[in-house]
Amino acid sequence: MTGDGVPSPTPTRRRLLAGVGTALAAATAGCGYVPGGGDLAWEESIRTGGLAFADKRFHLPAGDRLVTVTNQSGRTYDFEDEVWREVSNAAVSVLTSDGTVETVDETARQVAGAPAVADDAVFLPLEGARLTAIDLPDAGSVASGSSADPVRWQVDIGSRLASESGGDEKSTDGRDETGPSLRAVRASDVLAVAVGTRGIAAVDAETGDPLFAVPDLWAGADGAGGPGDAAQRVAVDAETAWAFAPGAASSAAGGTRPAIVGFNRRGDRRGERTVDAATEWLVALDGTAVAAAPGESLVGYDGGLDRRFALDVSAPERRPSGVAATEGRLYCARGRTLTAVDIAAGEIAFERSDLPSDHLAVDATGAYVAENSGGFNDPTRGRMVALGSGGSMRWEAPFPDEIEPRALFAIGGRLVAVERENAYAFRAAPGERWSPL
Asked: Rounded to a whole number, what is the distance in angstroms from the first to the last CA of the chain?
């Protein structure tokens, strides 16, 4: 029992082992032990929302923080009014590299598609075609518990995508709405672009002021998952929004060929380039738009959509998540093969085909790949591998027993494995571990 009469929680086996390991490392500091890559640093719960159920989670790395957006529903207790309330909303929380968790805000509606992080804010595509920007606290504000209103702006953007035919939707604040739904948002420090099922609408990332809209960019597209997923067709870099348009929506070759189109802040087409009809995804980085069809080559274009490079790489089926913006690197994982592309040089930095295939995370030092254990009758043990910028192995370590991560992220010198409602942080820097003096 603690001094205030509240029962002390029973520590989990992993938390106990982490504490024992930390104490042992401290006790043997004079014996030559240096914490090494893959050592467990801490374990924390990332659950938010009290008694409400988590319907879906999105995790977004942002420098030395991991942003989690959770759709939640159910009943929760309002201690101020002393009543039970039904909730159906989205909670935004931040996990720092030292294991501190803070709920930043809760929206009035649930998230309808993939959010984005840029300019120290998270941009949320909410139900009812509402786009909301929420400022993220820095590490110091998280530790001190800042009370400032985090909402930067919110915009009902459905009217700007009004040519989309949408079904009836009921918002979580009780109003019936008819109109388009949002599939995702892409953002930079200056642009936030809402992605609808058939088009896009851009606002100023700082103020939320409307900039331009192209509501019929994908006329006739269903916007559903898999091939033709609208969220994969849009990328944002600085003041340019890039989009893949089918033949009917492009002006290339008389509107008969699909194309990549670049839009500036005013909505003017700054460039257009015909591409392979099988092209499925776009990524923009350092003024270069990279496009690919699954299994085909990676092709990079400059701001005017002149071809910069075409690399003989088997492109992944889905839009790559491994973007190290500070290093100008794009990491593409396909099975056990990881390819690192140097965007500035327009060449392959390295490629390896002997790596774990389940998870990928990147930071300024390189890439991290991991795989879960093999399960029943499979002796494969879950492991993590850290690679340097040239592709050399920096360290390799097994996951502690019973940890089966669903996602992997690199934040602030920690490799964070997320397993349901828990996060486990491992040291990302290599070390000496045991060595005699």
From this structure: 42
Give the other-Cβ count within 10 Å of 185's Cβ.
Answer: 30
pLDDT band at 173 (very low <50, low <70, confident <90, very high): very low
CB 258 within 8 A of CB 287: no
Q: Within a 10 A sphere around the Cβ of 395, how many other Cβ atoms?
A: 19
Q: For residue 262, give the nearest of 202, 334, 179 by alpha carbon.
A: 202
Largest Cα span, the chain = 78
The residues with which 134 forms a beta bridge, in sequence order, are 122, 151
Provide the number of structural domains found in the chain. Answer: 1
Percent of the chain exceeding pLDDT 90 equals: 50
Token output for 382 = 């879950």
Identify the helix (H) or strand (E) that includes residue 18.
helix 13-27
Please indicate, yes or no, whether the overall pTM of this predicted structure exceeds 0.90: no
pLDDT band, very low/low/confident/very high, at 168 (cuts 50, 70, 90): very low
CATH code: domain of residue 436:
2.130.10.10
Q: What is the DSSP letter of 312?
A: -
Alpha-carbon 369 to chain mean position? 16
Distance CA 124, CA 113 (A): 8
Report yes or no: 260 and 283 within 8 Å, Cβ to Cβ: no
Residue 212 counted as domain residue: no
Q: Examine residue 284 and state whether it is found in any structural domain, yes or no.
A: no
Contacts of 429 (CB under 8 A, 6+ apart): 37, 413
Residue type, 232: Q
Show Cβ contacts of residue 144 under 8 Å, excluding neighbours closer than 6 positions.
none
**342 belongs to a structural domain:** yes
Note whether 323 and 310 are within 8 A (CB): no
67 part of a folded domain: no
| Domain range enclosing 13 | 9-38+322-437
Phi, psi of 118 (to 5 degrees): -165, 150
